[in-house]
Amino acid sequence: MEAGNQTGILEFILLGFSEDPELQPFISGLFLSMFLITVLGNLLIILAICSDPHLHTPMYFFLSNLSLVDISFSSTIVPRMLVSIHTENKAISYMDCLTQVYFSMFFPILDTLLLTVMAYDRFVAICHPLHYMVIMNPPLCGLLVFVTWFIGVMTSLLHIFLMMHLRFCGDLKIPHFFCELTQILKLACSDTFLNRTLIYFMTGVLGVFPLVGILFSYSRIASSIRKMSSAGGRQKAFSTCGSHLSVVSLFYGTGVGVYFTSAVTHSPKKVSVASVMYTVVTPMLNPFIYSLRNKDVKGALGRLLSRVASCL
Known about the structure:
This protein has ten helices and three strands; from the N terminus they run E-H-H-E-H-H-H-E-H-H-H-H-H. By secondary structure, it is an all-alpha fold.
C-alpha cells in the first residue's frame, strides 16, 4: 500500500496513554491545565517584553522567540490529543500525521538553536561588554533568528520528503500520544535506512554541536566571572546566566531522558510518559524559570499586569 498515493485513505491510530475510560477525564484535565498554563505563561513573557522598552535588548528578543516556539510546540500536540480523547476517535489521517511529524521536529530544532544563540549572546555580554551593542546589533540578531528558522524548516522538510516515499501496511497503531517520527518508521514495510541515517546525522549536528557551543560559551563566561573584582558584577552576571542555564539543563536533560528511556525499555507507555517532559512540561516551566529568576522580567510582568488591572 503506497502511502503517498492514498493520503485520503491511509490512517494511523494513536493509542495514547491508556485505553481505560475512567482515566480519560483525568488525562484530559491534566493536559488541558498544562497547555493553558504554557500558553498563558509564554504569552505573558512575550507581552511583557514587547510592552517594556527596558527589555528591548537582544537577550529578550531571543527570549520572546523562544516563548513563541514553546507555545507553538505545545499547540502542535496537545489540542489534537484532547480532541481525540473527547471524541473517542483515535484515528489520524496520513496528512495530519505528516503535518504533526513536521512540526514536532521543527520546533525542538528551533529550541536547540535559539538556546545556542542565547548562550552566544550571554558570552558577548559578559566577556566583551564594551562591544556588546556593536556586536549584537539588530541586523545580526534578526539574521541569527532567521538562520535558526531556515535550518529548522529545511531539516524538517528533508525528513518529511523521505517519509513520503515510505510504504505502510499491516497494523498502523502508534503506541504514542502524537505522531513521532521513530514510532512511525517502525510501522513502515519499506526500507527506512535513509530515514534512520538522517535522524542519527541530524541528531549529531543539531543536538551535539549546539550543546558543545553552549558549553564552550559558558566555560568562557565562567572564566570571565572569576576574574571580576566586584562581587556585585559577579552576582549580576550569574543572575543573567542562571535562567538560561536552567532552561538549557531542563531541555537537554528531558531530551536525554527520553533517549535513554527508549533505549533501555521496550515499553511504549514508558517512552510516552517520558516524552511528556520535553513536549509539555518543559514549555510550561520555561516562563516560570525566566520570571522567577530574572528581576527585569518580574518587574515588566508586574507593570504589565498593573496596566491590565487598571483598564478593567
